[in-house]
Amino acid sequence: SRIKCAREGGIRFTITGSGIFISVLISNVAGIGDIAAVKVKGSRTGWLPMGRNWGQNWHINALLQNQPLSFEVTSSDGITLTSYNVAPKDWSFGQSFEGKQFES
Protein backbone atom coordinates (compact mmCIF):
# COMPACT_ATOMS: atom_id res chain seq x y z
CA SER A 1 0.00 0.00 0.00
CA ARG A 2 1.13 3.52 -0.75
CA ILE A 3 2.05 5.67 2.20
CA LYS A 4 0.67 9.18 1.99
CA CYS A 5 3.37 11.76 2.17
CA ALA A 6 2.48 14.19 4.95
CA ARG A 7 3.77 17.66 4.26
CA GLU A 8 4.71 19.84 7.18
CA GLY A 9 3.40 23.36 7.01
CA GLY A 10 1.96 25.14 4.01
CA ILE A 11 2.93 25.64 0.39
CA ARG A 12 6.14 27.64 0.06
CA PHE A 13 6.43 30.59 -2.31
CA THR A 14 10.01 31.69 -3.02
CA ILE A 15 10.14 35.04 -4.84
CA THR A 16 13.06 35.92 -7.12
CA GLY A 17 13.58 38.32 -10.00
CA SER A 18 14.21 42.04 -10.24
CA GLY A 19 12.15 45.12 -10.97
CA ILE A 20 8.90 44.16 -12.64
CA PHE A 21 10.08 40.63 -13.52
CA ILE A 22 8.87 38.38 -10.72
CA SER A 23 9.50 34.65 -10.57
CA VAL A 24 7.91 32.44 -7.94
CA LEU A 25 9.08 28.92 -7.14
CA ILE A 26 6.29 26.90 -5.56
CA SER A 27 7.34 24.03 -3.30
CA ASN A 28 6.09 21.79 -0.48
CA VAL A 29 2.85 21.02 -2.31
CA ALA A 30 0.89 18.12 -0.83
CA GLY A 31 -0.26 15.22 -3.03
CA ILE A 32 -2.48 17.06 -5.46
CA GLY A 33 -0.78 16.04 -8.67
CA ASP A 34 0.53 18.89 -10.75
CA ILE A 35 -0.04 22.61 -10.42
CA ALA A 36 -2.07 23.75 -13.43
CA ALA A 37 -2.36 27.50 -12.85
CA VAL A 38 -1.13 30.23 -10.54
CA LYS A 39 -2.43 33.78 -10.08
CA VAL A 40 -0.92 36.55 -7.99
CA LYS A 41 -2.62 39.62 -6.56
CA GLY A 42 -1.17 42.73 -5.01
CA SER A 43 -3.19 45.09 -2.83
CA ARG A 44 -3.40 47.48 -5.79
CA THR A 45 -4.04 44.92 -8.54
CA GLY A 46 -6.66 42.37 -9.46
CA TRP A 47 -5.81 38.67 -9.86
CA LEU A 48 -3.04 38.37 -12.46
CA PRO A 49 -2.35 35.03 -14.19
CA MET A 50 1.29 33.90 -14.04
CA GLY A 51 3.07 32.10 -16.86
CA ARG A 52 4.82 28.79 -16.35
CA ASN A 53 8.56 29.03 -16.81
CA TRP A 54 9.71 25.47 -16.10
CA GLY A 55 8.89 22.97 -13.38
CA GLN A 56 7.15 24.86 -10.60
CA ASN A 57 8.65 28.22 -11.53
CA TRP A 58 5.97 30.75 -12.43
CA HIS A 59 6.60 34.29 -13.60
CA ILE A 60 4.94 37.58 -14.38
CA ASN A 61 5.89 41.09 -15.46
CA ALA A 62 4.03 43.34 -13.04
CA LEU A 63 4.73 46.13 -10.60
CA LEU A 64 4.06 44.38 -7.29
CA GLN A 65 6.57 46.01 -4.95
CA ASN A 66 5.35 47.55 -1.68
CA GLN A 67 2.13 45.54 -1.77
CA PRO A 68 1.21 42.42 0.20
CA LEU A 69 0.93 39.49 -2.21
CA SER A 70 -1.79 36.86 -2.36
CA PHE A 71 -1.57 33.66 -4.42
CA GLU A 72 -4.19 31.44 -6.00
CA VAL A 73 -2.92 27.95 -6.90
CA THR A 74 -5.02 25.54 -8.98
CA SER A 75 -4.14 21.86 -9.17
CA SER A 76 -4.48 19.71 -12.28
CA ASP A 77 -7.46 17.99 -10.65
CA GLY A 78 -9.27 21.30 -10.37
CA ILE A 79 -8.80 22.23 -6.71
CA THR A 80 -8.08 25.92 -6.11
CA LEU A 81 -6.36 27.13 -2.97
CA THR A 82 -6.20 30.84 -2.19
CA SER A 83 -3.62 32.17 0.29
CA TYR A 84 -4.22 35.81 1.12
CA ASN A 85 -1.41 38.20 2.05
CA VAL A 86 1.27 35.49 2.01
CA ALA A 87 4.03 38.05 1.50
CA PRO A 88 3.92 41.25 3.58
CA LYS A 89 4.01 44.74 2.07
CA ASP A 90 7.79 44.96 2.51
CA TRP A 91 8.68 41.62 0.84
CA SER A 92 11.89 41.49 -1.13
CA PHE A 93 13.45 39.24 -3.76
CA GLY A 94 15.04 36.08 -2.40
CA GLN A 95 12.54 35.60 0.42
CA SER A 96 10.29 32.58 0.99
CA PHE A 97 6.79 32.73 2.40
CA GLU A 98 4.34 30.10 3.53
CA GLY A 99 0.71 29.88 2.46
CA LYS A 100 -2.08 27.42 3.09
CA GLN A 101 -1.77 23.73 2.24
CA PHE A 102 -3.92 21.48 0.08
CA GLU A 103 -5.87 19.01 2.17
CA SER A 104 -4.82 15.54 1.09
Described by its quaternary structure, the protein is single chain
Question: Span from first to last CA?
Answer: 16 Å
Query: Proportion of β residues?
Result: over 45%
Derived from helix and strand composition plus strand pairing, the structural class reads mainly beta
The helicity comes to: under 10%
Question: What global shape is seen?
Answer: globular
The biggest beta sheet is recorded as: 5 strands, antiparallel
Rg computed from alpha carbons, rounded to a whole number of angstroms: 13 Å
Low-confidence stretches: none
Number of beta strands: 9
- Overall average pLDDT: 89
Describe the structure.
- 0% of the residues lie in helices and 48% in strands.
- It contains no helices and nine strands.
- It has strands at 12-18, 21-27, 35-41, 48-49, 51-54, 57-61, 69-75, 80-87, 96-98.
- The strands form two sheets. Strands 5-6-2-1-9 form a five-stranded antiparallel β-sheet, with no helix packed on it. A four-stranded antiparallel β-sheet has the order 4-3-7-8, with no helix packed on it.
